[in-house]
Amino acid sequence: MGVDLSTLQPIHVGFTNCYPIDTGEGLALVDTGSNTGPLWELLTGGLEERGHSLRDVRWVILTHAHLDHSGLALRVKEVSGAQIVAPREELPLLRDGGAQWHTLQQHFDRLYLEHGVPQALLDWYERQGRRYRWGGAWKQQPPLFERTPERRLRWDLINASDEVLAAEASLAETHHHAPHHRRGDEEGAWQPRPIQPEFTVEDGDTLALGQLRLRVIHTPGHTPGHACYYHPESRVLFTGDHILKRITPNPGLYFPDGEYERRTKSLPEYIRSLLKVRDLPCTRVLAAHEGEMNNLEYAVDRIIMHHERRARSAMRAVQRGRSTAFEVLPVLFPNLRAFALSAALHEAIGHLDLLEEQGQVRVSYQDGLFSYQPA
Ligand SMILES: [Zn+2]
Fold this sequence. Notes:
With about 375 residues, this protein is of the alpha/beta class. The chain has two domains: about 10-95 and about 190-295, Metallo-beta-lactamase, Chain A, CATH 3.60.15.10; about 100-190 and about 300-375, no CATH class. It has helices at about 35-50, 65-70, 75-80, 90-95, 100-115, 120-125, 135-140, 155-160, 160-175, 185-190, 265-280, 295-320, 325-330, 340-355, and strands at about 10-15, 15-20, 25-30, 55-60, 85, 200, 205-210, 210-220, 225-230, 235-240, 285, 360-365, 370-375. The longest helix has 24 residues, at about 295-320. It is globular. It binds zinc ion (ZN). Zinc ion (ZN) binds near residues 69 and 288.
């Protein structure tokens, strides 16, 4: 007798959905949450509400290495002795624990420059604290590009940034002094620790934990090793960040083994990974964020259509003479704010990768700059 997942409900650990599965021989937990005190309490409280305790957790199954999924895994393991299961291709990111962060930043800076981002904008971005500041004040930033047909970078904004920074610093100061704010926890959330899983799984494997059997489907794109887990008896697919209900997951760019030349072409790969799962018999799509979906085909097609629209915009932009990813950027993201600059650049480069793969554009590299022309 197998495990029935037809009524499985997530524990909402902040923005992340964690799925506690009773395997008949202990609990398996699909994904955890970010490593903060309040989220830890949500996870343990959620288990208790379901009549479990943390000590019942025997396995933590990770879809990928991002900290909002893997963050609490080691803490669960320390309390319960749980074993961590992760996709083999995700090992470099899991083991890294942030050690390569500096190298990665250097690679990104080089990549952005080679795709046309002005050095002055990168310097400004650095001063703004890069990508890990997602506060409320941050989202109220004005758009980076003018709302004119030329869609030029707003240098006035860049030049005024020191005043903006000063205002934000005083806001942050007030926030830190609020009594309920756990400063240490928040900082700890972004201090990854290396994870060495007890088990690794590969595409096509059947993961057997107690009476639970899950088929492993390697779905690279969001990260190089991302995996979905499929339960055929219940027609349930755990999609991690591969398929979400409203958001379109960002195809992050990576450099396998830290080698700049081996940059992943994540968007084309991501779309192949979407098509790989599209036709599975599935009645419940359980994602790691947002709500549940019940029509896998529809969920996949929504994301693919979104990218097809973007790819057409990118193609038109190239036809009109925008020849770098940075020039294409404001066409794809006219309202872009600084906090999303990095993610947006990854996607713009991804669309050019896609068009190149489809033979619609050709890329040339000269004087340290990648430029694209209609094929
Ligand atoms: Zn996530």
